Amino acid sequence: MKKIAQAVAMAATFCLVIFAIVSVVFTFGPVVERLAFPVVTEVNATYLKNVDHLMQFTMTGNKRRGECVIKELQATVYTDKGPTRGTVYFKDPVSGDLTSNLHSRRGGTQSFDVWYIFPVGQSVSVRARHDCHIFWSSYTDLFTIQVGEQP
């Protein structure tokens, strides 16, 4: 009976240790990954002008992790009424129409073309969510810029 109790205690301890390790990895992993292995760096965004109730920007940056797939762009627009969720649009390369459909890009330094953000506000912050592996999403704060701000 004593050996069974010892075996149960060892199994429970082993399970607790595994649970603790997994908890630590999934708690601190996304933070470490964001700081040590960012998806996009060297971002330079420029406000161009307001066009038809949209703010127009250009952006360049270095996509350091080409294996990552873009899943979402989160824009926060700061207006007179406070912060509000914005929508990011792009020109479709074929039709020329505005679309919010995302497509992943290769790695390396590149221009991310012209972005249009609705609604118009005094400033905007944009954050990207990429999937680089099966464990968690990687978030990158791309830029915060004052509307009318020129480089």
Number of contiguous helices: 1
Architecture per CATH nomenclature, i.e. the level-2 architecture of the largest domain: Sandwich
Taken together, the total number of domains comes to: 2
Beta strands, count: 8
The top level CATH class name of the largest domain: Mainly Beta
Helix content: 10-25%
Overall pLDDT metric: 87
CATH topology of the largest domain: Immunoglobulin-like
Which regions contain 5 or more consecutive residues with pLDDT less than 50? Answer: none
Series of secondary-structure elements, N-terminal to C-terminal: HEEEEEEEE
Q: Main sheet, how many strands, which sense, barrel?
A: 8 strands, antiparallel
Distance separating the two termini: 76 Å
Describe, in plain words, how this protein is organized in 3D.
There is one protein chain. 15% of the residues are buried. The mean pLDDT is 87. The chain is 23% helix and 50% strand. Strands 1, 2, 3, 4, 5, 6, 7 and 8 form an eight-stranded antiparallel beta sheet that branches. The protein has one helix at 2-36, and strands at 40-51, 54-63, 69-79, 82-91, 98-99, 108-118, 123-131, 137-146. It is elongated and about 80 Å long. The protein folds into two domains: 1-36; 39-146, Immunoglobulin-like, CATH 2.60.40. A hairpin with a 5-residue loop joins strand 7 (123-131) and strand 8 (137-146). The termini are far apart. With 151 residues, it is of the alpha+beta class. The chain contains one helix and eight strands.
